[in-house]
Write a structure and sequence with these properties.
Blueprint (H helix, E strand, L loop, with lengths): L13 H4 L14 E5 L5 E4 L3 E5 L4 E4 L6 E3 L4 E3 L6 E8 L5 E8 L11 E4 L3 E5 L18 H38 L1
Length: about 180
């Protein structure tokens, strides 16, 4: 899977390009899918693009997928955002904290209100149509990576449980055979 990195706009370009999708390396005409950097679940796409802030390393989306969980507990940020009320956003697949949604802001931060503010550090992106040739990899030849390690360990534990059960049953059958032979 070929991916691209999010390249935020410069400070000079911030105001003029806040509502454009020129933050992406490559062909900006193609739609982009944003993924959780930990479990790779899709969390949004460039069709919901609302802007970016390079100073905060944040991207802003008008809508996200159902893979983003919105925390019910409201928090007040008195340090950085001078009294903003927000809720945390996390990935439903791995619970990674992805950003915030501001419910109440001072006037100078109104552009953040009711927008999904996602931290670039926890988001990866993929440009649809960016692959020139699809690579087919045989499942048996795929390397075990950190993302699949938990799956492999889970399957190994299941196999170990089944094997232990079969050993117990085999021992019981062998014991019955011994008792039948000794009864003859």
């Amino acid at each position: 899977m070929a991916g691209v990195t999010v390249d935020l706009i410069t400070d000079d370009e911030e105001e003029t390009t806040r509502n454009s999708a020129t933050f992406i390396n490559g062909d900006s005409d193609l739609p982009v899918v944003f993924l959780c950097s930990q479990c790779r679940l899709p969390v949004g796409d460039s069709l919901a693009w609302a802007g970016a802030n390079p100073k905060e390393n944040m991207i802003y989306l008008k809508s996200v997928t159902n893979n983003i969980l919105v925390d019910k507990e409201q928090k007040v940020d008195t340090a950085d955002e001078s009294g903003c009320i927000y809720v945390l956003l996390s990935c439903s697949g791995c619970s990674l904290s992805l950003g915030r949604m501001y419910l109440s802001t001072p006037a100078h931060l109104d552009f953040k209100r009711n927008i999904y503010c996602l931290a670039v550090a926890y988001i990866e992106s993929y440009v649809l149509g960016s692959t020139t040739k699809a690579e087919l990899v045989d499942d048996s030849k795929k390397p075990v990576v950190l993302e699949t390690q938990a799956e492999v360990l889970g399957e190994l534990a299941k196999s170990r449980t089944v094997l232990n059960l079969m050993i117990t049953r085999l021992a019981a059958v062998e014991e019955k055979l011994r008792s039948l032979k000794s009864a003859e």
